[in-house]
Design a protein that fits this description.
single chain; alpha+beta; disordered C terminus; diguanylate cyclase activity; EC 2.7.7.65; diguanylate cyclase; Helix Hairpins; GGDEF_dom
Length: about 350
């Protein structure tokens, strides 16, 4: 539907354009929807890019990284210049020491006045060198602090770029990265699993109650899933009403128990929204589980967990299914069953 609307409006199918249309379609931001509506029926790519830069920090990552690289390069250059100044100062001091030593070791005795002058020169050179060292040390500390601050900013930008703006859990980009990491390490494969969860009947719920209520429900569902997943769960929103949990360090029974805790918590939630605490429950989710060791790669793991999720939908929804337990080859996939419900 989103792709069809983009084509109808003459918009190129770029990921950043799709992100705008998806946010408008789901009502993620009223301000974004209002500004998008002001673009008319044939928005220009330039206008869409301005919206993308304004509302989606993740699309600014190239500019952010470039800016950070420039600042790091500038600080590094300054540090190298300070180190060169320190080296020059030390070399100059060593030259004074060598010449003074050579003069003291000469065959002729030095008068008291000459010795006093030598001592004065040495004292002044030492003082200058020490002061120069202290100045450079302070400057180095300042540059180090700047680099530490940049490191903190980059970490914050990265977290923001990988966070779903509505639910505040990880987004699809972060999920794809974490999934790839599983198969880069043999231990990860042995001790990881994927749970896919989908809110039952959410499209009809949105049509009935409106997107603002639907957004609140998504936020509450994300919170409950995160709460029940604890420290061992990497929770991401992978689609409109679909969430994923990458579980670390649990057996299949342990993963199933975690999924059931999340499912039960959502089934029992009242979903009270607004100043009147109007209740929009009950709601339910269906879940599918696959252990990483049952798949050959990240794509295969997702497909098998998705197949288990389909089994839960097919068996009546509001349940958890394991890929290891479903009948192999027994399902002819019908995406409309839950992707379009």
């Amino acid at each position: 539907m989103i792709a069809a609307r983009m084509r109808q409006m003459g918009v190129t199918g770029l990921p950043r354009n799709y992100e705008i249309f998806y946010a408008v379609e789901t009502g993620t931001s009223e301000e974004l929807s209002r500004e998008f509506g002001q673009l008319g029926d044939r928005p220009s790519q330039r206008a869409l890019d301005e919206l993308s830069r304004k509302y989606f920090t993740s699309n600014n990552r190239d500019q952010i990284v470039q800016s950070a690289q420039e600042q790091v390069s500038e600080s590094t250059t300054d540090i190298l210049a300070l180190m060169q100044r320190e080296q020059n100062s030390i070399e100059k001091f060593c030259t004074i020491l060598d010449k003074t030593s050579g003069g003291l070791e000469g065959p002729n005795a030095l008068s008291r006045d000459v010795l006093q002058k030598v001592v004065g020169i040495m004292a002044a050179a030492t003082h200058t060198t020490l002061e120069q060292g202290r100045t450079i040390s302070r400057a180095m500390q300042e540059k180090t602090a700047e680099l530490d601050e940049m490191k903190t900013k980059l970490a914050r930008y990265k977290r923001l770029a990988e966070t779903d703006p509505l639910t505040r859990v990880w987004n699809r980009r972060a999920f794809d990265r974490r999934m790839a990491e599983i198969y880069n390490d043999g231990r990860e494969v042995m001790f990881n699993a994927l749970i896919l969860a989908d809110i039952d009947g959410f499209k009809a719920f949105n049509d009935r109650h409106g997107h603002p209520v639907g957004d609140k429900v998504l936020q509450m569902v994300a919170h409950l899933i995160s709460q029940k997943s604890g420290q061992c769960g990497f929770v991401a929103r992978t689609g409109g009403e679909e969430f994923a949990i990458i579980v670390d360090g649990k057996s299949e029974d342990g993963v199933y128990e975690l999924a059931e805790h999340a499912r039960t918590a959502i089934a029992q939630a009242e979903f009270s929204i607004g100043p009147t605490a109007q209740q929009f429950g009950p709601l339910s989710i269906s879940l599918g589980i696959c252990m990483a060791s049952e798949a050959s790669d990240a794509e295969d793991l997702y497909a098998k967990a998705d197949r288990a999720l389909y089994a839960s939908k097919s068996d009546g929804r509001n349940r958890t299914s394991r890929f290891s337990k479903i009948t192999k080859g027994g399902f002819a996939k019908n995406w409309l069953l839950y992707k379009g419900e």
